[in-house]
Automatic annotation (TrEMBL), chains A, B:
Name assigned to this protein: TetR family transcriptional regulator
GO molecular-function terms, A-Z: DNA binding
Domain of life: Bacteria
Keyword set includes DNA-binding: yes
Keywords: DNA-binding
Domain HTH tetR-type: 21-81
Entry's Gene Ontology BP terms: negative regulation of DNA-templated transcription
Portion annotated as DNA-binding: 44-63
NCBIfam families for the chain: PRK15008.1 (NF011584)
Record carries keyword DNA-binding: yes
UniProt source species: Paramesorhizobium deserti
Pfam families in the record: TetR_C_3 (PF08362), TetR_N (PF00440)
DNA sequence: CTGCATTTTGACCAAGTAGTCAAGTTTTTG
DNA sequence: CAAAAACTTGACTACTTGGTCAAAATGCAG
């Protein structure tokens, strides 16, 4: 039989037991750590299994292929990662909405840098596992928000700016603090750990970008 | 004997022959392509050898370890990659100097995205091979330029802005177009290939950042 | 052209790793 | 509590891959 996970015949169609729920969660958490640190090819099933506290065959009982674990972690992460963009309110104040968005993205980079790195690594290597997602769901979402931003520009609520490049700039800048963390630390040294560092970062980033796009009369 | 490459005894101390010069160049070019596409762990010596048009043992005759090839490519790349920052003229016009710098970085991302990706991948995975370089040479260079920018701010030639975060933002944004190329393409589609796309990108990026840091009276 | 140094490679080895399997243990359920 | 289902794992296989080696081919100085 092909499917590894099944239930007693005729039972609920929802095919997960208590133990499955627990273990899949443990595995995915371990996998995020490992994959984000070493990349797909650089990670071994054994590493993930050890971090998850179980044997390799046991892990493979839940995810029969290494690819399966990877894709699942990636998809789970992606959904969460994009949500803030979706939450930009077309009827809000443009500058305020973008301030909120940038703040949120910086906070996510701070709190879950592994997610950012996992994603960055995937894209960097050509996004073999999610190119459909990029061209489909992501493009649609970005197109939508770009339209909103363009309207804001037309209404003179923002300086004339290309919406797509603005979005790229926000992504690039905010994720930089997660993806290039070691470089940031090498250059800034211990001040990265000082309290208030993240607020200071947010202020600097927001300052430049928002001043760059505020309408000039 | 430990050294693989040697010359006829007592000859010139410059230990490279004609063939060595040619082949090392070929290997390093092939290695940049392969490593930037697949990362260190994801690349095989065989891949590089094939792309270089020689057998694996032959490649290993020139670089006895996979690490050696990688580190050599990385160092060669790094030097070139940082040069534009070094070229910022402390006595030039601030806005003009930064415009030049951003333009140059965007051009490099367009013309040699592999170099950017190689570097991004290394940093993303903790920079095991170049952390000394980051904390030494790079930090020194950035500190130097940050001082210049800070002086420009003090002289009211730029709006008050944190020099380090400004530099990070420029790096992040310009390299984004190389490192996240597939994502940019997925979202913008065919217009990425239209003539003038890069000029348009430059204009958008420069527009936001420079407006963001121009002194406001 | 000769002989030595350099370059090249097929065949091989050892280590590491994805995935299998059959046999055990634990959990659930009637 | 007994049987069935779900879970767990040690031992194993097949394959990939970094690196070795000895012998052959080529380049080159005199």
């Amino acid at each position: 039989m092909a499917t590894a996970l099944k239930r007693k015949g005729g039972s609920k169609s929802e095919g997960t037991t208590r133990i499955q729920g627990i273990n899949r969660r443990i595995i995915l958490d371990a996998a995020l750590e490992v994959f984000s640190a070493y990349g797909f090819r650089g990670s071994t099933i054994d590493q993930i299994a050890t971090k998850a506290g179980m044997s390799k065959p046991n892990l493979l009982y839940y995810f029969p292929r290494k690819q399966n674990i990877y894709v699942t972690v990636l998809e789970d992460t992606l959904e969460e990662w994009l949500r803030p963009l979706d939450d930009i309110d077309p009827d809000g104040d443009p500058v305020e909405e973008l301030r909120k968005y940038i703040t949120l993205k910086l906070k996510m980079s701070e709190e879950k840098p592994e997610a950012s790195r996992l994603f960055a690594n995937e894209i960097l290597h050509g996004a073999p596992a999610i190119s459909d997602f990029l061209k489909g769901h992501l493009k649609k979402l970005v197109d939508e928000k770009a339209t909103v931003i363009r309207r804001w520009v037309d209404e003179r609520k923002l300086a004339p700016v290309d919406p797509y490049h603005l979005i790229f700039m926000i992504w690039a800048t905010t994720q930089h603090y997660a993806d290039f963390d070691v470089q940031v630390r090498a250059i800034l040294g211990s001040q990265v750990n000082r309290p208030g560092f993240h607020e200071q970062t947010a202020q600097a980033v927001i300052g430049i970008i928002l001043n760059g796009i505020k309408p000039r009369d």
